[in-house]
Amino acid sequence: MKLSTFLSILNDNVPFDSAESWDNVGLLVGDRTSDISGIMTALDCTAEVVDEAIEKGCNTIVAHHPLIFKGMRAITADEGYGNIIYKLIQNNMNLIAMHTNLDVHPQGVNAMLADCLGLESCRILMPETTDYYKVQVYIPEADADAFKLRLSEQGLATEGNYEHAFFNTRGKGQFKPVGDAQPHIGEVGTIETVDEVKIEFMIDGTQRKLAEQLIQQYHPYETPVYDFIPLQKDIQRGLGMIGQLPQSMTVAQFVAHVKTQLDMPSVRFIGNPHAQIETVALIGGSGIGYEMTAMKQGADIFLTGDIKHHDALDAKIAGMNLLDINHYSEHVMKEGLVKLLNQWISQQFDGQIVASTTHTDPYQYM
Ligand SMILES: [Zn+2]
């Protein structure tokens, strides 16, 4: 399989543009025209990870954390992060980053963590919303079909795999043209009653200007009457997960469970050690700042990494239970992404898809 094909399959499943604006995802190093020999997933692309990929015959690494993120001043064989890029290029390797786009995916890093902890009835902690409009236009019955065709041709009024999705209600329109009016129907100074249709359809937030322009252009009336009703809907992606343990546990039991499942030698707890835990919210990586959202949704405990002293103190004073599971707990994405890739590309790709076994946690737990 060509790298370009792989990238477009990734983009179909975990759109790169769903990443945060500050992020750096997609192809970071490589050649889109190259053939993929094998794929290795990794949390961080370190020099050891590149060596492992070469050894395993995988010329393509899909890493969660973007290697190219902060300013990089040199790409040389002997220095820092530049050395890793140098090694990738010298060995004709490809490096793809799937970072915050994988975080917000419904089967992404947070779902993988929830799955690893055995949470049930999971839902996204903070579902993203998208803006759309319901449009209503009033038009003479005789002109309605041609008008709808014009809108439909321009990509308006689609619902999933359905185009030309309109709802029509018949009614009577009334108006009295006055002053310098040049009416399509009727005469100045006379109340006119016309058989009209109210056409209703949906557009997404980006189509509003186009819709307004097309209505002005193709509606027969001098002054068309229409409404844009702004609406929002949840989309199936967003940060964090919240779910239930199969049975309630003490903090001590829960902590032991988390350490075993995430293969973490130590974690840090803030809160009431006598609490019973049943509803668990989590955000992989650095999710501090969302603990209140989690508590408001009924979480007995919030799990994330990188919790600092003052965040911890704030939470303790507010009576919350937090568990710092370390940023490295995101390593579950290595196996999780292998499973997803197998679902997405097994039809087109018969090479190996493996998870890196290199340990990239910079901390040693003493
Ligand atoms: Zn991370």
Shape: globular
Bound molecules: zinc ion
The CATH topology name of the largest domain reads Udp-n-acetylmuramoylalanyl-d-glutamate--2,6- Diaminopimelate Ligase, Chain: A, domain 1
Give the strand tally. Answer: 13
Give the N-to-C terminal Cα separation. Answer: 45 Å
The arrangement of helices and strands along the chain is: HEEHEHEHHEHEEHEHEEHEHEHE
How would you describe the oligomerization state of the chains in this entry? single chain
- Which radius of gyration do the C-alpha atoms yield? 28 Å
Main beta-sheet strand count, sense and barrel state: 8 strands, mixed
Strand-residue proportion: 25-35%
Strand arrangement, largest sheet?
Answer: 6-7-5-8-10-11-12-9
Poorly predicted runs are: none
Percentage of residues assigned to helices:
25-40%
InterPro entries: DUF34/NIF3 (IPR002678), DUF34/NIF3_bac (IPR017221), DUF34/NIF3_sf (IPR036069), N-reg_PII/ATP_PRibTrfase_C (IPR015867)
Pfam family, one: DUF34_NIF3
GO molecular function, one term: metal ion binding
Protein name: GTP cyclohydrolase 1 type 2 homolog
Can you put this structure into words, describing what you see?
The protein is globular, with a radius of gyration of 28 Å. Helix 5 (109-116) packs across helix 11 (332-345). The chain has 3 domains: 3-101 and 331-355, Udp-n-acetylmuramoylalanyl-d-glutamate--2,6- Diaminopimelate Ligase, Chain: A, domain 1, CATH 3.40.1390; 109-127 and 238-327, Udp-n-acetylmuramoylalanyl-d-glutamate--2,6- Diaminopimelate Ligase, Chain: A, domain 1, CATH 3.40.1390; 128-234, 2-Layer Sandwich (Alpha-Beta Plaits), CATH 3.30.70. The chain has helices at residues 3-13, 47-55, 80-90, 100-103, 109-116, 141-153, 208-218, 251-262, 291-296, 309-317, 332-345; strands at 26-29, 38-42, 60-63, 94-97, 120-140, 167-175, 192-204, 225-250, 268-270, 276-282, 301-304, 322-324, 352-355. It has 11 helices and 13 strands. Strands 6-7-5-8-10-11-12-9 form an 8-stranded mixed β-sheet, sandwiched between helices. With 366 residues, the chain is an alpha/beta fold. Strand 3, helix 3 (80-90) and strand 4 form a beta-alpha-beta unit. It binds zinc ion (ZN). The site of zinc ion has 4 residues, from loops.
